[in-house]
Amino acid sequence: MTHQNPIRLGMVGGGNDAFIGGVHRIAARIDGRFTLVAGALSSTPEKARASGAALGLDPARTYDDFKAMAIREARLKDGIAAVAIVTPNHVHYAAAREFLKRGIHVICDKPLTATMADARKLAKAAQDSDALFVLTHNYTGYPMMRQARQMVADGQLGNLNVVQVEYAQDWLTRADDSKQAAWRTDPAQSGLGGATGDIGTHAFNLASFVTGLELDSLSADLQAFVSGRQLDDNAHVMLRFKGGARGMLWCSQVAPGNENGLRLRIYGDKGGLEWAQENPNQLWFTPFGEPKRLLTRGGAGAGDAANRVTRIPAGHPEGYLEGFATIYREAADAIVAHRDGRDVAADVTYPTIQDGLAGMQFVDACVRSSKRNGAWVRLVSAG
Known about the structure:
This protein is of the alpha/beta class. The chain has helices at 19-30, 45-54, 66-75, 92-100, 116-128, 143-153, 179-184, 187-190, 195-211, 304-307, 320-340, 353-371, and strands at 7-13, 34-40, 82-86, 105-108, 133-135, 160-168, 215-223, 234-241, 246-252, 261-268, 271-276, 282-287, 293-296, 377-378.
């Protein structure tokens, strides 16, 4: 499907051997709302050009660096309206800043940046720009997570007491020198957090998105189990939310047998919800004192919030790529409304710069707490 007037999209990073770049390109195409027309696809000029050629980009719009791309595209009559930033974390701030200050909307991969200092500077750049900033926490795009969020907001769980979230993988159980592992375990590229930044931010963001709770303080125990690894590959984090709810977050990339084990459980005084990313079309709801009820994407009991982002009939799996595509579709709606001078804030849902700051505060607090032997710490101010 191609939209009548697709939004011209550029991409920074995401060259030939980059997994996440391909994911973003697929997601941007699923609903036909974007067309990729420009890119600075690698930090190496030769690889950037080769990647652009492989994608069929005009050589004149395949750039050696993102600043040159931002400058020229902003001047072109048919220049890009939005850019996807899919680089390692340490590049996010500098790249996003160049496009934001030229009025080009930014769709940025998570986490927000590598450091809190850069996160604050990026938040200021986004505030000063007329352009939109979208963070691709893709799991918030899953229909059953929209369903869960609506059920919590409607009071079906009552007052929330307990939030349990985990994200377990096993791909870094042993030393790995692949490109994907190398930058994620390098403090200069990833930042202070290893597993906490890579997947812990996803878990924290999803719990916050669904519950609407604001974190007050945490106690974290971070480990690097692989010898010589500089960043954490496992973390246990206890959470205290404002209002009295309590939680626990476990993220690990050294848990054999776990492929992409993102799971969320929420319990209130009226009932509970359970969801697992590897079975994303199912949500278990248990009203207190009653049997469990299975809600399915597109099935009986699914509400408006879930159905609005459901593409295909019940029983046909939707998941990772469609979740990403939902973020892109919401971004497209917001970009078109912005262009037309309309406010669609009530009609679209996507992670913002504030969600990105919260994720960085979470990582920063985890590192500080662990260095103090798991002491309870509060989140630093985002200002």
